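Researcher: Please translate sequence to structure tokens.
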Amino acid sequence: MHPIAHAANRPDHPAVIMAGSGEQMTFKQMDEAANRFAQLLRARGLGESDAFAVLLENRIEFFTLIWGSQRSGTMLVPISTRLTAPEVAYIIKDAKAKILITSTHYADVLEGVREELPDLEVLIADGGGDEDFASALDAQPTDPIADQSAGVVMLYSSGTTGRPKGIRPAPPEDPDVQAAVPLMGLAIMGAGMPTDGSMVYLSPAPLYHAAPIGWASTVHRLGGTVVVMEKFEPEAALKAIETYKITDSQWVPTHFVRFLKLDPEICTRYDLSSHLRALHAAAPCPVPIKREMIEWWGPIINEYYAGSEGIGMTLVKSPEWLSHPGSVGPAIYGTLHICGPDGEEVPAGTDGLIYFENALLPTYHNDPDKTKDAMHPKGWMTLGDIGHVDEDGFLYLTDRKSHMIISGGVNIYPQEIENLLVTHDKVMDAAVIGAPDPDLGEKVVAVVQPMAMEDAGDALEEELRDFLAPNLSRVKMPRLFDFRPELPREANGKLYKRELRDEFAAKAAESAEA
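Model: Translation complete:
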């Protein structure tokens, strides 16, 4: 159950298909490319534990890098394509990455990175010339390197509350390149993924994120085919399910919202009968949104809660979710603990900081203070989320601790307000933040992306207030509605609230000075 074995036993079976272009890579081709890349890393002086950085759009070469790293014992550092040149350079320096692999799509960013890191070695996936990645790869043999060992991926936080921080994973328990990894057991026993190589998995999100890398790699270990969308578009995703007879998929709540905003005729245009399992995570899903998705797709939607840190995981399948609406399920990896401000565990039904107890815990690279802040005195670790468990042990997420608004001394969690707003038929997306207020400390601000910008204005604001009023206490009602054509949201659904908070903080500072 590893790509090396599948390359030997099923060499012509497709390992990767790009959904838009149809470009394919077989298990044999992926195996040979991975060996070439491992050879290339050694030729460029990278040994075990050395890092290389990747700044790439969704392209087939990503899997060459993933599996080559997994044979060379190196550390792959994926970088968000949304970051600026100084932020990219910071991550490269912080990770001590010896090579950056990128494409001409990021030529402007690369120019800025070179200014800060003039000695950085760069390989360009579609560049030509001395830095051409394809040429460098083709020059290497397809034989395995002599000193193969399992590598690791060091993901960086999105930087939504400060500078990105590297999440340094614990070393592999078994350095054998073909050793099983924990996610395999969770995929098989938890999510029900098949082990017979029949899986066709749709990955609609950017490959530099934890879930796409983790789940796509697991699909390859199980002998399945990964179908990668170059970019998520709701109708294109439905078409891909029909075209490639997708059996499994991975989503975030934002994707579900986009699906449900489609014209109903489009939703019934495509044959989704091959689709057997749909995973989703990354943020709490509004209950009405998930109900509609289950009604449409059937009880195939499985939700989990986890993080890039890999400290634990919960899982809830559709039938259990319908009896525990809003839950992300009981823990299937790690042990849950919900703690109050004093660090003591709180009773069922009481919100607190969510911790996981686990034998394998990461650290934050070059940031012992952040690591310490995430740890409980008993050795448990938190992702910074607030929630509670019910009497059955099912976890419910309230919001990120860092997103909490304190207005007039009252704690307000934006997720509740956002979940209501996105169910309105004239709202495409919404972000709720706290903005500085001289009387309240912070005031609740709703930044809303309407379905059509021509609807933006006082009439829509009044309509939204009327819509929220029956389900929202007055203290939680937004003091301000700000309509925008787009929100600063990652393609994986993560919202960059820091940008919005900084913007409103700057406006408040300007007003105070005036």
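Researcher: Any highlights?
Model: The longest strand covers residues 427-437.
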